[in-house]
Amino acid sequence: MEFTKSITVAELLQVKRLNLELVCGKRYIHREITLGSVNRPGLALCGHLESFRAGSVQVFGRGEHAFCLKENKTRLRANIAKMLSEGAVPCIIMAAGMDPLPAIRKACLSADVPVLKTDMESTAFVAEFSRFLDEKLSPVTHMHGVLVDVSGIGVLIRGDAGIGKSECALELIKRGHILVADDVVEVQKRWGRFLVGSCPTMLKHYMEVRGLGILDVPLLFGVGSTLDETNIDMEVVLTSPSKQPIDRLGVEQKTTNILGVEIPSLGLPVTPGRNLAVLIEVASLNQQLKSQGIFSAKEFSKKILDKMKKGNNGKQ
Q1: Quick one: which of 33, 36, 68, 301 could link to 133 by a disulfide (CB 3.0–4.6 Å)?
Q2: Is 144 known to be catalytic?
Q3: Annotated catalytic residue 183
Q4: By three-state DSSP, how is residue 310 classified?
Q5: For 4-43, how does the pLDDT look when each residue is reduced to its tens digit (9 = 90+)?
Q6: Strand extents, DSSP E, the chain
Q7: Beta-carbon neighbour count of residue 271 at 10 Å?
Q8: How far from the centroid of its chain's Cα atoms is residue 254's Cα?
Q9: Phi, psi at 11, each rounded to 5°
C-alpha cells in the first residue's frame, strides 16, 4: 500500500542540520509540509502569481531581501498577502541569518504563517533542505520480499510464501553479499526516479528462516553483513516452473512498476538442485553489463540472425 508522509513546521525546527530558528508565529507551527519542493518567491513579490507554487515552503534569499528593501512597503505587504492567500503556504524561511522586514512579518501573521530563519546561505540551504524533504516526504510503499545488495546491485527477491526467498538471501550473505531487509521491504521513491529500499525498524538486521526461526544476521555473519538501505536496481521473482514459460535466451527484458518507476524484472523457476543464490549473483553482474549497454542475449541472437541471412544469400 502506497502512502505519503508529512511533517510539521514544529518538527522542522528540530532538524539540527538546517540550523533553523523561529522568528514569529509560534501559534502556527502546527502547519503541515506535504510537498517536497522548495520555492524562491521571486516574481510573486511583484504580484505575478501565474506559476507560484503556493503549497511549498518559501525561501527568501539575499536577492528577495534586497528587492523587499527597495519596494514600496504598502505594495510589498499587499503582494505578500496576495501570495499567501493563494494556498496553504506552510512557512517562510529567511536565509543568510536575515530578519524579515516588518511588512513580511505583518503579512505572515495575518495569514497565520510562521516565519523562520537560518544562518545558511540560500543556495546551500535550498540544496540541503531539498534533500531533507525528499528523504522525508517522497512516496513510500511496503512490499513482501527480501532485499539484498549483490555486488553493488540492489536485488529485490519476491515470490510466493515458502518458496525460499530467505534461504536464497541467506546463501547470498554467506557468499559475502549484504542483507538490507527480510520479509518486509520499505520502498521509497527518491528524486522522482530512484527507488531506495530499507527495513522497518523492528525487523532491522533480523531474518526469519523456516526451521531455524529468527536469526540475528550481524551476530552470525559480522557487522558488515547488513545495510540500512540501498537502491533497488532489479527484481527477481522466484516461481514454480509450471507458472510461466521460460525464456531460454533471455532476449525479452521484462520490467515491473513500483511507485511509477520501471525496474528490470527476472523470473527464476525454482527446481530441485538449482543454486538460486549463484543465479541471482550472476543476474546482478549481467544487469551491470546491461546498464553499460552490453546485452549478451541480444548480441548472441543478432549473430545467429546474421549467420542465417548469410546462409540464405549463399543459397541464392
Answers
A1: 36
A2: yes
A3: yes
A4: helix
A5: 578 999 999 999 999 999 999 999 999 999 988 899 998 8
A6: 2-3, 7-8, 20-24, 32-33, 38-39, 57-60, 92-94, 115-118, 140-150, 153-159, 178-190, 194-198, 206-209, 213-216, 229-231, 234-239, 254-258, 261-269
A7: 9
A8: 22
A9: -70, -35
Active-site choice (16, 70, 193, 248):
248
Distance of alpha carbon 60 from alpha carbon 105, whole angstroms: 13
Give the amino acid at 182: D
Tens digit of each residue's pLDDT (9 = 90 or more) over 203-246: 999 999 988 899 999 999 999 999 999 999 999 999 887 766 66
Residues constituting the chain: 316
Name the catalytic one among 82, 106, 136, 183: 183
pLDDT of residue 210: 86
Largest CA distance in the chain: 90
CA dihedral 8, 12, 14, 19 (to 10 degrees): -160
Candidate list 75, 144, 175, 302, residue with the active-site label: 144
Are residues 265 and 185 in contact, defined by beta-carbon separation less than 8 angstroms? no
The letter for the amino acid at 177 is H
Phi, psi of 171, rounded to the nearest 5 degrees: -65, -40
Among candidates 241, 217, 279, which has minimal Cα distance to 160? 241
- With contact defined as beta carbons under 8 Å apart, do 262 and 255 qualify? yes
Cα angle 163, 167, 170 (rounded to 5 degrees) comes to 155
